[in-house]
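A reminder before we start the practical. When you read a complex entry, don't treat the lines as separate problems. The point of joint prediction is that each chain is placed relative to the others, so the output describes one connected object in space. Small molecules and nucleic acid strands, if listed, are placed in the same frame. In the example below there are two entries. Take a minute to note the order of the lines before looking further.
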Amino acid sequence: MSTTTRTDRPSVVLVAQSSRWGEKLIHFWLGFCALSSVIITVGIVLALFTPLPEFFSRVDFRAFFSADPWAPALATPSFGVWNIVVGTLNVTMYALIVAIPAGLGAAIYLSEFAGRRARKVLKPVLEVLEGVPTVAYGIFAFIFVTPLLRDNWPTWLPGDLGDAPGIFSSGAAGLVLGVMIIPTVASISEDAMSAVPRSLREGAYGLGSTRMQVATKVVVPAALSGIVAGFVLGVSRAIGETMVVLLAAGASPNLTLMPNESVLPMTAFIGRTATGDISVGTDVYFTIFAVGALLFTMTFLMNMISIALVRRFREQYE
Amino acid sequence: MTSQTTTETTSNTRGHVPPVMAARELGVYYGDFHAVSGVNLDFNRHEVTALIGPSGCGKSTVLRSLNRMNDLIPKARVEGEVTYHGQDIYQPKIDPIEVRRRIGMVFQKPNPFPKSIFDNVAYGPRVTKMKVDSMNDLVEQSLRRAALWDEVKDNLKGSAFGLSGGQQQRLCIARAIATSPDVILLDEPCSSLDPIATAAIEDLMTDLKQEYTQIIVTHNMQQAARISDTTAFFTAGVDEESGKRIGRLVEYNDTSSIFNNPAEKSTEDYVSGRFG
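Here is the predicted structure of the whole assembly.
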């Protein structure tokens, strides 16, 4: 019986029946897709950085990184980039003052306190908020928040802080920018906190912790790397965001950290200048690239720092 | 039949000291699922009680209802009574946090916090705002009592995740001891450990009997026989009314009686390894 089956069996074929061209083509195409993002990134970096030698042949390096006035388009131009760097930092700072407590609070609520039904509604709403076009936030800042701030400014504050802001203010831009990045901070932090194993929470409850203690002393520290990543992504968005600051922060490159003055963040400068009529080859033209390269370097450093931070926390906690 | 046996053993409570904890007609539901019903148990002071039985018999469910850990599971519901020093811990005015401070818990898988060894042990006293003269002394004492001090004393600032599984579980016991609870619940504390680590935990439990009342869920019958004073045998049977599987307590008695002279046929079958 068994011998007949053995002889009946057809000869075993292990050689490929076809050369499977389709599969090879797909393999190639997918590899190309993956590679193209790298190529494009490199291209952008090159486009930003290649005009730099020309710029610095026209503008002194030290004059650029200085607190000289920022007036690249004037007849006697001046290129103190520090003014617009501080403009960016100013707006980002107010954005973070809003976004970090609110975002972390929302994440803690969603992950530790909200019932299943509340989470089912709130989490998708939060994610939809991330998709609202930034220009809508810009209009919101300009039409709604700016007048609100102007009419309700605490004028009893001492010194210059007591002056009500004008049509443009870093405070209004920062506030709205902060609201804009709350979903990013909250959503990423919530993901990190939900990933903390149930067993850790149970251990903490088993020792008589309150909900708040479980959240702040166990879940947040355990999820810290993810939470920091959320903060950093939020900061990167705030630094790189253009529409809100273009519409609400103004165009005066004031070197200030006050919330009630107009500032010119780096992105707003690029946005305004690049949409105006500038001729190729002028000083202003090259300034756009210099500011863009500086902006890129800043966010790049931010991301490196965040990666290092995340890695360090991870070593410590896992 | 079942209830007779349990009532009998309940009245048989050894000693004249009232039990530290007791369950009366305890039943637990998860949504519509009736996990376990009609459990009557007394837990005596400074004894180890083992809850044994095949998977799905409700022994872990019963354990978790003793310090209201089931509260954390949405849709879990408890009927009957669990008393701690005579007080029903499911009364509305009872704070589950206070309950858990007195009735600590050690879990199946070691679950140290992502903190240093020191901070793990100090966690409970800190969150409960215990009045402590010296946190260093308390941590040392707790680690000594958990038989872990000598292994970690030079590395208290090191991460708890650097420890082996057995060390982590002893750290979790030290962490539970540090809040000076009255009762310690252990949910299969050795199921993820090797035999040597298991032996260390078992020795530790025997030592801890001097000060604590311990209730352990275990799948390991030899372990129950080695370390417990009383044993409760659970099994899952089909409920006559609903026709669904439901956990129930079969027999509760001195460990030696359960293993050598069980009153119920199913207990004998289980402890002799014929099923489960």
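Discuss with your neighbour: DSSP finds 14 helices and two strands in chain A. What might explain this?
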